[in-house]
Amino acid sequence: MQTNINKNKYTYPILQKITDHFSGKNKADLDNVYILTCQHLLEPQMKMFELLVDFGIPKNNIHLFGKIYSTSNEILKEMKSVGFNVTQPTFDPDTSFDSEHKENCTKAFNDFLSDVNKPARIIVIDDGGELLKLINNKFDLLNGNLSVVGVEQTSSGFRKLENIDLKFPIFNVARSSIKLIKESPLIARLGCDRIVDAINQYSVLDSRILIVGLG
After folding, report:
1. Is the pLDDT assigned to residue 5 strictly greater than 50?
2. Residues near 201 by Cβ (< 8 Å), separated by ≥ 6?
3. Which of 46, 150, 154, 176 has its CA 20 to 30 A from that of 187?
4. Are 62 and 53 in contact (CB under 8 A)?
5. What element of type H or E holds 146?
6. Which DSSP category does 116 fall into?
7. Confidence at residue 80, expressed as pLDDT on a 0 to 100 scale
8. Any residues with CB less than 8 A from the CB of 111 and at least 6 apart, and which?
9. Following CA atoms 174, 179, 185, 189 in sequence, which dihedral angle do they give, to the nearest 10 degrees?
10. 150, 132 contact by CB (below 8 A)
11. What's residue 30's pLDDT?
12. Comparing C-alpha atoms, which of 10, 53, 74, 48 is closest to residue 127?
């Protein structure tokens, strides 16, 4: 369900602190830094990538694709309108999500490599671990002019990766203290606020809320 709730009332204090910390400092030359990412395409992710562009990573170097169950069409359109290279793969409801997602990761990775100018530094940011697992399996086929580092943002993705032989460093932010102690209560509060706003906006009298997660 899409709503017309005013997004400006929601704040992201941790992102703001990062912005304030780097404000006024000399930015590094990041023209050869590329990002490939599978994300929940929601407002916080858009804010995060806007911040990365502010740091100096060219917008054209950022390739994003979403998961069908966690993509806001509003955010998808907004990111496209401001020039992000972002897509939402289609899914066949009669086919296994996992198998389709694996195929989408493979296609996104192959398309991404065709756009990378070598030498390059590549950051892979993943929600769920499938993209990182795929690149790890193909790592020996990559050109030596590519330096790769990964970031996994979910606990389910961490569990998928924790017992495999990693060919490049992957940062497990899913179990970091900043995410567990600071972010989780913030996300829960934002979720509750948005639910209340939606209930009030549509005058829902008998509300039922279901929350599902793998974290």
Report:
1. no
2. 3, 4, 5
3. 150
4. yes
5. strand 146-152
6. P
7. 95
8. 63
9. -80
10. yes
11. 87
12. 48
3-state SS class at 104:
helix
**Distance between CA atoms of residues 189 and 184, nearest Å:** 9
* Contact predicate 31/123, CB 8 Å: no
Amino acid at 121: R
Locus of tokens 């030596």: 144
CA distances from 118 to 20, 33, 43, 204 (A): 32, 10, 32, 54
- Helices 73-81, 43-55: inter-axial angle, 10-degree rounding: 20
The half-sphere exposure of 181 on its side-chain side, counting CA atoms within 13 A, is: 3
Per-residue burial over 179-195, b if 16 or more Cβ lie within 10 Å, else e, is beeebeeeeeeeeeebe
The whole-chain average pLDDT of the chain stands at 87
Query: Residue 209: is its pLDDT beyond 90?
Result: no
User: pLDDT of 180-199, one tens digit each?
Assistant: 888 778 778 888 888 899 89
- Confidence check: pLDDT of 167 > 90: yes
Mean of the pLDDT values across residues 100-121?
A: 93
Name residue 174's amino acid: A
Dihedral in degrees, nearest 10, Cα atoms 27, 33, 37, 43: 20
In which residue are the tokens 């009332």 written? 9
Check if the beta carbon of residue 161 is closer than 8 Å to that of residue 152: yes
Q: State the Cα–Cα distance between residues 176 and 123, nearest whole angstrom.
A: 19
